[in-house]
Design a protein that fits this description.
- The protein is about 20% helix and about 25% strand.
- It is α+β, with helices and mostly antiparallel strands.
- The chain has one domain: 2-Layer Sandwich (HIT family, subunit A).
- It starts with a helix and ends with a strand.
- The model has no long low-confidence stretch (mean pLDDT about 95).
- Bound molecules: 2'-deoxyguanosine-5'-monophosphate.
- 2'-deoxyguanosine-5'-monophosphate (DGP) binds next to strand 2.
Length: about 110
């Protein structure tokens, strides 16, 4: 979608270094981090939010959590504090499904 900020990042219209990229998702740092580590895991397809997920997204969701587990290990968070957050409703500001991985020292609620 042309007016979606995450689609523009995914399509490389906005330069951004990805921490990880596969055929179906990208990972990049949140512009306004709420924790020491704050990464966004974003499917490449424009899925608006949780309510739009169907059984067809099963493989995507497994891939997302596999990537999260890799990022947790890479950042030595296994024995530290970390959370995966998906906002919905009025708590979701960017209408393109994304998972927040937050770790280490907390700054605020995401
Ligand atoms: P949410 O409230 O769950 O929709 O969180 C959206 C997050 O996206 C928020 O923490 C800030 C982040 N964000 C918004 N625009 C940009 C951007 O242009 N670049 C990056 N890296 N992050 C963004």
């Amino acid at each position: 979608m042309n007016d979606c900020i995450f689609c523009r990042i995914i399509n490389k219209e906005i330069p951004k270094e990805f921490d990880f990229e596969s055929d179906s998702l990208v990972v990049f740092p949140d512009i306004n981090p709420s924790a020491e580590l704050h990464l966004l895991i974003v499917p490449k397809n424009h899925i608006i939010g949780m309510a739009d997920l169907t059984r067809n997204h099963g493989d995507l969701l497994v891939e997302i959590y596999n990537v999260v587990n890799k990022l947790v290990k890479q950042n030595n968070l296994e024995e530290n504090f970390y959370r995966v957050v998906v906002n919905g409703g009025k708590a979701q500001h960017v209408p393109h499904l994304h998972f927040h991985l937050l770790g280490g020292q907390w700054k605020r609620m995401v």
